[in-house]
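Bug: token stream looks shifted between consecutive jobs. Job 1:
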Amino acid sequence: MKKIILSIILTWSVGIVHAETIVDVSKIAGKSQEDVATYLGKEISCSKGKHGNKCQYNKGEVEVVFINGKADWITVEGINNIPFTKSALNALGLQETRPSFKNNFTLRWEGIQGLRSVSLFKGASKSDYAYIKVKTK
């Protein structure tokens, strides 16, 4: 009985510690609109904004702002099942590391894996969405 309980606990904890990759932001960060569409699929919609094209994609409920023709501001929604911990970086295809800033509602990493910043925002109980800045403030 103890072995069964231990097995259940280990299986459950491994799922929490290592979130499955929803969107690998390294595959779209700094890429052209065409390259992003190759990875995420055709955009649902695009509109011209102050800084450039802003496009929405189905995969991972992603929104990308293209600044100077490159994917620069990336918002990933649909991560409501991902724990609000540093392990959430795995869901973004990034390596887990200690945040530069954290409070009860935000985890932020500065300068990780060539990105300006990655911010994770808390939802009702787990993560709500992530906001990635590639180059532009």
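Job 2, same session, no restart:
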Amino acid sequence: MKTAQPGNTVTIRFSIVLDSGATVGGPGHTTPLTFAIGKGRVLKKLEEGVLGMAEGEKRKIQISPAEGYGEYNQDLVLKVERKHFTPDIKLSPGRTVQYQNTSGERVNFVVREVNDQTVTIDGNHPLAGMNLNYEVELVAVK
């Protein structure tokens, strides 16, 4: 039986259970993901967590905010005047909007609150500040 080693390409099924009990990423290990271990395409702690797993094995991997998407940064929550958005855009809480900075880089923000005068947007990753409890099944090793 093959076990996951550095440089292998692995396929896993996973879900992420937050401390609140909410599940993201596919309940019941339904979200498949293929990646090469050591290439930095997924969180480092997830790569490390699958090392040594055998095909068919299941494992829980805990990832802290510092090892995941960072601590929640209140400085990334901005209140912007409504006039800075085109009138045809339908702004509602939960919608993602993009901003392009002066160097051409695009940044995603999530709309948190909208009123006639302002729009509150949040530039934090949706999983920032959260402990991520991965439930992983190793499907294949190549």
